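Sequence, structure tokens quoted for completeness.
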Amino acid sequence: MPANGGYVTSLPTLSGKADDQINAPVHPSGLAANGVSVAIQQVGGSWWSGASFTDANAFYSTATYTGASSGTWLYTVPAALQNALVSGNQYFVVTLSTDTAAMPIQQHPGGVGTPLP
């Protein structure tokens, strides 16, 4: 990610960390290889639908996860999304990881994951 106030001119991939060990559970179930998803919103606008920024709700695309209860994820940004990014606009990226016990955990950029209700 760029420094505060900075910008990027291309966005081929997004990556981060996912952790099923929040609040130190005794028996974390772990995350599956397809257990992390990514949603992107144009700040002040709509969510990426898989084809354009037109969805009112988050549309999650699957990222590749490497690890067990803690690891890293990688999302290759599709060409359609790269082409839809407009210079000067800001975008919000959120991830959703689901452990192998089917418990969703929302991961906030730069923050600690919060279990969903």
